[in-house]
Each structure stands twice: as structure tokens, then as C-alpha cells.
Design a protein that fits this description.
binds FE2/S2 (inorganic) cluster; Glutaredoxin; Rossmann fold
Length: about 350
């Protein structure tokens, strides 16, 4: 038996998932834990660079909201686990260090006061030499140095993101554009809003040109669903004498949109009638596209609606749908907008 001192690398994050049979949810905790391990599988071949560990525990004591997952050292609790949420927790929280805010039901520590993610968790300096021999092939890979959740250089960040990207197995936050002269652009976006709500995803809707005090069916529904749904006048103060108020509010809306998109608090952000702000020349489409390309989180979906989507936006988007009017009751029968159908 070797007298060599045993060295261990610190764990970065530790995920616990309950497997008791008391939980209310349909999902099976053991199967979800297995799924979490599968999600981490590729990274384990890379010697688990973030030193993530996944364990099962019989019951975490919150069965009525189960299955439950807890991530340490932050002490962040997630409830009502399903496969989608496990995937988000693994990719966003365990690997990227960004808790899945929308799914948290309890924090052990106040935001920003959580214990630090173990520094240099890859632990290359402290690796057991025996382990090094076994891992020689993997060791050819350049190490990723993680300090806190921050990676120091742009090159490191890019390499890290590339690895994460591969693990996401084709998942991507889409830029979706609903344009064209036919009815249904906003309706389609609101359909996604409802679908996402049904999946417990966090959605924010910003309406660019509609009157901010309007109480349309969709804004009433959003209020009942507790979805953040607002106009561009939210928080707006206007002093400029050079812009008309509509334009100034629209530009303010873009600032609200940028804040929402870069906040990492939502899974879907809908910018309703945003194409007009660009089509009217109030905002340079190239500026919008460049900002989205740089700042939109990888898994966030952004949906933009409105006629006359500029070519550069169409070029940048992942999914573009043109609503084409074939027949409309107003043009053929003079029937105006009706409650529940149009507003
Ligand atoms: S069995 Fe899941 S919390 Fe009790």
C-alpha cells in the first residue's frame, strides 16, 4: 500500500435529488438523477472540469412540491423537477454558474451572499499523480481554469462556451420573427407565451406601440397568469424636445428590452410590434442585430413581431414566419375587430 498522501480535489457544486416515494410530482427522482448524470456525462470524460457531483437522497422533506433538487454550496432549492428543469439546472447552474431563477423556490442565503463556488475547482495543481497517469489522454486537453464562476480570458470563455454548446445537443435560444401583412403575428407570439407558461417558463412581454394603459384580452390574461406584460411607457420619463413622445417611448422600450434580455431572468422575451421601431428608422436594425448577437443569452428565446421586418433582422433570425392575408372579414364584409378575436 502506498504511503503517498491522498490528495483530493474539491467539489465545485453538488446536486442532490430526492428519490423518496412521497413526492407529489409524477416524475421519478431516481430517473431524474440518472438524467442529470447523463447530462454531465461528456464533461466527466473531460475529468469533470467543474468538479460537479450528483447524489440522490431519500427525502428532502418538501414532498408536496417534489421531486426536489438542491445545489450546494449556494443552497439553492428547486421544486417540481422534470427532465427539462434538470437539464436547465445542470447546464445553467452546475456548469455555467447561473441559477435557474424562474424555478427556485428557496434560497439558503440571500442573493449574492452565497458561499463561493470553490476556486480553481478543476484542481490541476492538486491532482493525485496516480490519477494523472490514468488520465493522460485527457490531460492532452488544455485545462480550463475556473475561478469563482468567472473565466478570465476571452479565449478561455470561448473554449468553455464551445464545450457547453456541444453538450446542449442542439438546443439554442431562438430569435423568432413573425412578420407579414396578415393577422396572427402577435397572436402566434402569445400562443408561445401561453405554452411556455404551461411549462413554468418565465416570459416577459414588451409591447412597443400599443397604448400602455390598454386592457386587451391578452394583457388581462397575462395579469391572471402573473406574466410580466407591459408597454414601453413602463418607468418612462421624457424630457427631450427633439423627439416625439411615441418615438421616445419606443426607444425607451428598447432599453427595457435590453435589460430584460441580458438579465438572465427569463426564458422567453417577446418584443411585440418591435419591427416598426426599426422600419420607421427610429432604431438602426444593424445596431439591434449586433446587440442581440453579443448579448442574448444562448438559451433565451426572443420573439419579435410586426410588419416589414428589416432584411438584416430576417437574416439574423433563426425562425421567420410571414403571415399573408388571404381573406379578412373587414375587407370582404366590413366587420371590425371583435373582442376575444382581435383584442
Ligand atoms: S420524497 Fe421528495 S422531498 Fe420527500
Amino acid at each position: 500500500m502506498s504511503d503517498a498522501p491522498l490528495t483530493m480535489r474539491a467539489y465545485g457544486r453538488h446536486l442532490f435529488i430526492c428519490t423518496g416515494d412521497q413526492c407529489n410530482g409524477d416524475a421519478d427522482g431516481a430517473a431524474l438523477a440518472q438524467y442529470a448524470l447523463e447530462q454531465l456525462g461528456e464533461r466527466r470524460k473531460l475529468r469533470n472540469p467543474e468538479r460537479v457531483k450528483c447524489s440522490t437522497v431519500s427525502c428532502l422533506g418538501v414532498c408536496q412540491r417534489g421531486p426536489i433538487a438542491v445545489v450546494y454550496p449556494e443552497g439553492i432549492w428547486y421544486s417540481q423537477l422534470d427532465h427539462d428543469l434538470v437539464e436547465q439546472i445542470v447546464q445553467a447552474h452546475l456548469i455555467n454558474g447561473e441559477p435557474v431563477e424562474a424555478a427556485i423556490f428557496h434560497r439558503l442565503y440571500p442573493v449574492d451572499q452565497e458561499p463561493e463556488y470553490a476556486p480553481a475547482v478543476r484542481g490541476d495543481q492538486a491532482v493525485n499523480p496516480i490519477e494523472l497517469q490514468h488520465d493522460q489522454a485527457v490531460e492532452q486537453l488544455e485545462p480550463i481554469v475556473v475561478a469563482g464562476t468567472q473565466l478570465h480570458s476571452t479565449e478561455e470563455k470561448q473554449r468553455y462556451r464551445e464545450q457547453v454548446r456541444k453538450l446542449r445537443k442542439g438546443k439554442k435560444g431562438l430569435v423568432i420573427v413573425n412578420t407579414g401583412n396578415g393577422k396572427g403575428k402577435t397572436s402566434a407570439a402569445l400562443g408561445v407565451m401561453t405554452r411556455a407558461w404551461g411549462r413554468d417558463l418565465k416570459v416577459k412581454v414588451i409591447q412597443f406601440l400599443k397604448h400602455e394603459n390598454a386592457k386587451f384580452g391578452e394583457s388581462r390574461a397575462a395579469a391572471k397568469m402573473e406574466i410580466e406584460f407591459g408597454g414601453t411607457g413602463d418607468g418612462f420619463t421624457w424630457t427631450s424636445k427633439d423627439l416625439d413622445a411615441t418615438k421616445a417611448k419606443a426607444l425607451h422600450g428598447w432599453e427595457l428590452a435590453k435589460t430584460a434580455i441580458s438579465s438572465n431572468q427569463y426564458q422567453i422575451v417577446i418584443l411585440d410590434e418591435f419591427t416598426y421601431v426599426m422600419a420607421f428608422g427610429w432604431l438602426d436594425v444593424n445596431e439591434v442585430v449586433a446587440w442581440l448577437a453579443t448579448n442574448k443569452p444562448e438559451l433565451l428565446h426572443v420573439i419579435i413581431t410586426g410588419r416589414d421586418a428589416p432584411a438584416a433582422l430576417i437574416e439574423h433570425a433563426d425562425l421567420v414566419t410571414e403571415m399573408r392575408e388571404i381573406k379578412h372579414p373587414f375587407t370582404t364584409q366590413g366587420i371590425r375587430a371583435q373582442i376575444g378575436i382581435d383584442f
